[in-house]
Design a protein that fits this description.
Blueprint (H helix, E strand, L loop, with lengths): L4 E4 L3 H10 L5 E6 L6 H4 L4 E2 L8 H11 L6 H20 L6 E2 L2 E2 L1 E2 L9 E2 L6 H14 L4 E6 L4 E4 L3 E5 L3 E3 L2 E4 L20 H9 L3 E2 L4 E8 L11 H5 L3 E3 L13 H15 L4 E4 L5 H7 L1 H9 L9 E10 L2 E3 L11 E3 L4 E2 L11 H17 L24 H8 L6 H14 L2 H12 L23 E3 L6 E2 L1
Length: 476
């Protein structure tokens, strides 16, 4: 239980890092609750990569930068798009089975992409297929071990990070946070139960810098049926021609605009009409097409009485993805010795203020590999006798998701954010408080962060927010 390398999280980023680490020492991969439960498993639409004949890496870079609304780190974006094609080829070599047209890879288009560059697997189970291939590859390596725990909330800290407290203290040369997202902090979310922001909280209490945490992407189209989960209806549906309509059957927005634009358009239409949802309609493509192209989505909707091949599905926005997180460089290094981060929990600046659709799986693969490679060179050891744990996180309060939805949601304003800060401070709710503080400090609207009282983008805030323990929000 004292490996050379400790990887916290078993999604795409954590698994890819573990594969890279295996040749350099023993690797322990740990996850909360279940090794096979992660946001990666639920990523339907696909993985974006410039591999088709009519695409170019430069175009993928351009689309990513445009979606990020002036806040992307160009070096991170360039790393993502340039290393993406080789990463996909590697996945294929390890057994990932992407959908094909004959012998050629099949690509589709999603919002804000200028080309068809989104690969998919089994129609709408891309994340699950990539995670499957990576898990089998990692599990085949002699030095990689897997364990699950009920909770993982503390890092061992002494001028740097040298392990974590699970059932017992575990020491390691380097620790990787690959814990995924934080959507479960919101009342409505597409995320699995484990996506509660634990990695951001652990990093923050250990002393690491957190960046751009106010930027939370709300997916425009989650199933909105009473008694049903907020199941994600992939943007790939709109890429295949699905239309957004109000109760009168009228279109009200451009379906393939950036996600923040579409989400706000839906919210505005719901407020205008008083309806609890809008309709996502692909019925004009016919039942056979919908069933074959989106088998998982089709069967899930059918289970709740909606036949997507014959009728529109009721949808509304839901919290989906965190652009911000534990601040890292391009190799996953955080601001603390011994601590690395990759995937959704990390913030390299690659997504800016608004993630381009289907860039997240690619980010996990590309930056998971880079973090694993950098960790092989790490050898942080604390002073003799050091045994300091970061603060144990309190159990979540039932009031938090509603407060987050009301005050830190799709449309924000100072009064609500200030109230949220006060409430979250009294509840010792670490990550909600970080989001509220940074959203309050960013007095503009940019990407996924929309302030009703500051509706215009400001050059003054064309910088990344940074917050750390016992310090105010700064911009750099």
């Amino acid at each position: 239980m004292n490996p050379d390398f400790l990887v916290i999280g078993a999604g795409v980023a954590g698994l890819r890092a573990a594969i890279e680490l295996a040749e350099a020492g023993t690797v322990l991969v740990v996850a909360k609750d279940s090794l096979r439960e992660s946001s990666s498993e639920y990523a339907q639409g696909g993985i974006a990569v410039a591999l088709s004949d009519d695409d170019e890496v430069a175009l993928h870079e351009q689309d990513t930068m445009r979606a990020g609304d002036g806040l992307c780190n160009l070096a991170a974006v360039r790393t993502l798009v340039e290393e993406g094609p080789a990463a996909i080829q590697e996945l294929i070599e390890w057994g990932a089975e992407f959908d094909r047209d004959g012998n050629r890879l099949a690509f589709t288009r999603e919002g804000a992409h200028s080309r068809n560059r989104v690969l998919h697997a089994h129609g709408d189970s891309t994340g699950r297929e990539i995670a499957r291939a990576l898990y089998h590859k990692a599990a085949s390596l002699a030095h990689v071990t897997f364990r699950s725990f009920a909770a993982i909330t503390e890092l061992l800290v002494s001028e740097g990070v040298y392990g974590a407290v699970l059932d017992e203290p575990i020491h390691a040369r380097a620790v990787l946070l690959a814990t995924g997202g934080l959507g479960r902090l919101y009342l409505h979310t597409t995320n699995p139960e484990v996506a509660t922001g634990d990695g951001v909280a652990m990093g923050y209490h250990a002393g690491a810098e957190i960046s751009d945490i106010e930027f939370v992407q709300f997916h425009p189209t989650a199933l909105a049926l009473e008694g049903a989960p907020n199941f994600l209806l992939s943007e790939a549906l709109r890429g295949e021609g699905a239309l957004l309509k109000n109760a009168s059957g009228e279109r009200f927005t451009e379906e393939l605009a950036p996600r923040d634009v579409v989400a706000r358009a839906i919210v505005n239409e719901m407020r205008r009409t008083g309806a609890p949802h809008v309709l996502l309609d692909l019925s004009h493509r016919g039942e056979q097409f919908v069933r074959e192209r989106f088998p998982r989505i089709f069967e899930t909707c059918l289970r709740y009485g909606i036949n997507l091949g014959r009728e529109g599905a009721p949808v509304a926005p839901a919290a989906h993805y965190a652009m911000g997180g534990v601040r890292t460089d391009l190799d996953g290094r955080t601001t603390l010795p011994g601590l690395f981060a990759a995937g959704e929990v990390a913030c390299t600046g690659v997504h800016g203020a608004n993630r381009l659709a289907s860039n997240s799986l690619l980010e996990g693969v590309v930056f998971g590999k880079r973090a694993g490679r950098a960790m092989r060179e790490a050898g942080f050891r604390p002073a003799v006798g050091s045994a300091v744990a970061s603060r144990t996180l309190p159990p979540p309060d039932a009031a938090i998701p509603r407060l987050m939805w009301e005050h830190c949601g799709i449309v924000r304003a100072a009064e609500g954010l200030q109230k949220a800060c006060e409430e979250f401070e009294s509840l010792h709710a670490t990550v909600p408080l970080l989001i509220a503080r940074c959203a309050l400090a960013r007095r503009e609207s940019r990407g996924a962060h929309f302030r009703a009282d500051y509706p215009i983008k400001s050059d003054q805030y064309a910088r990344h927010s940074i917050i750390r323990k016992d310090a105010c929000v700064t911009f750099a």
